[in-house]
Design goal:
Helix content: under 10%
Structural class: mainly beta
Radius of gyration: 14 Å
Strand content: over 45%
Number of helices: 0
Order of helices and strands: EEEEEEEEEEE
Number of strands: 11
Low-confidence stretches: none
Largest sheet: 7 strands, mixed
Mean pLDDT: 93
Oligomer: single chain
Length: about 130
Protein backbone atom coordinates (compact mmCIF):
# COMPACT_ATOMS: atom_id res chain seq x y z
CA UNK A 1 0.00 0.00 0.00
CA UNK A 2 1.18 3.52 -0.69
CA UNK A 3 0.00 6.69 1.00
CA UNK A 4 0.36 9.88 -0.99
CA UNK A 5 0.72 13.31 0.55
CA UNK A 6 0.42 16.54 -1.39
CA UNK A 7 1.83 19.84 -0.21
CA UNK A 8 2.46 23.36 -1.43
CA UNK A 9 -1.06 24.60 -1.96
CA UNK A 10 -1.89 28.06 -0.69
CA UNK A 11 -3.54 31.37 -1.49
CA UNK A 12 -1.82 33.19 -4.35
CA UNK A 13 -2.62 36.07 -6.64
CA UNK A 14 -3.46 35.82 -10.32
CA UNK A 15 -0.27 35.60 -12.37
CA UNK A 16 1.75 33.95 -9.62
CA UNK A 17 3.56 30.66 -9.88
CA UNK A 18 3.32 27.77 -7.47
CA UNK A 19 4.91 24.35 -7.15
CA UNK A 20 3.05 21.44 -5.61
CA UNK A 21 4.82 18.39 -4.28
CA UNK A 22 3.71 14.82 -3.80
CA UNK A 23 5.53 12.38 -1.56
CA UNK A 24 4.70 8.88 -0.45
CA UNK A 25 4.97 6.65 2.55
CA UNK A 26 4.73 2.92 2.56
CA UNK A 27 6.39 2.38 -0.78
CA UNK A 28 8.82 4.27 -3.00
CA UNK A 29 7.24 6.36 -5.72
CA UNK A 30 9.66 5.23 -8.39
CA UNK A 31 7.55 2.07 -8.73
CA UNK A 32 4.64 4.11 -10.02
CA UNK A 33 3.53 6.28 -12.84
CA UNK A 34 2.03 9.41 -11.29
CA UNK A 35 -0.65 11.90 -12.13
CA UNK A 36 -1.99 15.23 -10.94
CA UNK A 37 -5.67 16.08 -10.90
CA UNK A 38 -7.80 18.86 -9.50
CA UNK A 39 -11.38 19.27 -8.45
CA UNK A 40 -13.24 22.51 -8.04
CA UNK A 41 -16.51 22.68 -6.08
CA UNK A 42 -19.37 21.29 -8.11
CA UNK A 43 -17.11 20.00 -10.87
CA UNK A 44 -15.69 16.65 -11.85
CA UNK A 45 -12.14 15.70 -11.05
CA UNK A 46 -9.98 16.96 -13.88
CA UNK A 47 -6.80 15.45 -15.27
CA UNK A 48 -3.84 17.84 -15.35
CA UNK A 49 -0.63 15.92 -15.97
CA UNK A 50 0.97 12.52 -15.73
CA UNK A 51 4.43 11.03 -15.90
CA UNK A 52 5.81 7.56 -16.24
CA UNK A 53 7.97 5.96 -13.55
CA UNK A 54 11.22 7.72 -14.42
CA UNK A 55 9.88 11.01 -15.77
CA UNK A 56 10.99 10.64 -19.38
CA UNK A 57 7.42 10.49 -20.64
CA UNK A 58 4.98 13.17 -19.58
CA UNK A 59 1.54 14.22 -20.66
CA UNK A 60 -0.18 17.49 -19.83
CA UNK A 61 -3.81 18.37 -20.42
CA UNK A 62 -4.38 20.77 -23.28
CA UNK A 63 -6.20 23.16 -20.98
CA UNK A 64 -3.04 23.83 -18.96
CA UNK A 65 -0.23 22.66 -21.21
CA UNK A 66 1.40 26.04 -21.60
CA UNK A 67 1.28 26.80 -17.88
CA UNK A 68 1.71 23.53 -15.97
CA UNK A 69 4.51 21.00 -16.05
CA UNK A 70 5.04 17.74 -14.22
CA UNK A 71 8.37 16.38 -13.11
CA UNK A 72 9.71 13.90 -10.63
CA UNK A 73 12.84 13.28 -8.66
CA UNK A 74 13.45 9.64 -7.92
CA UNK A 75 16.74 10.16 -6.15
CA UNK A 76 16.94 8.51 -2.78
CA UNK A 77 17.83 11.67 -0.90
CA UNK A 78 14.58 13.36 -1.91
CA UNK A 79 12.51 10.32 -0.94
CA UNK A 80 10.97 10.34 -4.40
CA UNK A 81 8.95 13.45 -5.10
CA UNK A 82 6.60 14.34 -7.92
CA UNK A 83 6.06 18.00 -8.69
CA UNK A 84 3.44 20.06 -10.44
CA UNK A 85 4.86 23.40 -11.47
CA UNK A 86 2.16 25.94 -12.20
CA UNK A 87 2.65 29.39 -13.67
CA UNK A 88 0.45 32.29 -14.71
CA UNK A 89 -2.20 31.13 -12.30
CA UNK A 90 -5.77 32.25 -12.84
CA UNK A 91 -8.76 32.42 -10.50
CA UNK A 92 -10.27 29.49 -12.40
CA UNK A 93 -7.33 27.37 -11.27
CA UNK A 94 -8.76 27.47 -7.77
CA UNK A 95 -9.37 23.87 -6.73
CA UNK A 96 -8.27 21.02 -4.55
CA UNK A 97 -5.24 19.44 -6.19
CA UNK A 98 -4.54 15.73 -5.91
CA UNK A 99 -1.67 13.49 -6.82
CA UNK A 100 -2.47 9.91 -7.68
CA UNK A 101 -0.89 6.68 -8.76
CA UNK A 102 -2.16 3.68 -10.72
CA UNK A 103 -1.20 0.19 -9.63
CA UNK A 104 2.54 -0.45 -9.68
CA UNK A 105 3.79 -1.09 -13.19
CA UNK A 106 0.78 0.43 -14.90
CA UNK A 107 1.42 3.24 -17.38
CA UNK A 108 0.68 6.90 -16.94
CA UNK A 109 -2.86 7.77 -17.90
CA UNK A 110 -5.17 10.73 -18.28
CA UNK A 111 -8.13 8.65 -17.08
CA UNK A 112 -9.08 9.22 -13.47
CA UNK A 113 -10.43 5.67 -13.24
CA UNK A 114 -6.97 4.22 -13.89
CA UNK A 115 -5.69 5.57 -10.57
CA UNK A 116 -6.05 3.60 -7.37
CA UNK A 117 -3.93 5.55 -4.89
CA UNK A 118 -4.92 9.10 -4.00
CA UNK A 119 -3.70 11.74 -1.62
CA UNK A 120 -5.97 13.92 0.47
CA UNK A 121 -5.37 16.94 -1.73
CA UNK A 122 -3.88 20.37 -1.24
CA UNK A 123 -5.92 23.53 -1.72
CA UNK A 124 -4.87 26.12 -4.26
CA UNK A 125 -6.76 29.38 -4.21
CA UNK A 126 -6.03 32.08 -6.77
CA UNK A 127 -7.33 35.55 -6.05
CA UNK A 128 -8.00 38.06 -8.81
Amino acid sequence: QVQLVESGGRLVQAGDSLRLSCTASGRALYSFAMGWFRQAPGKDREFLAATNWNGDITRVADAVKWRFTISRDNSENTKNVVYLQMSSLKPEDTALYYCAAPSAGRPASFNVHDYVHWGQGTQVTVSS
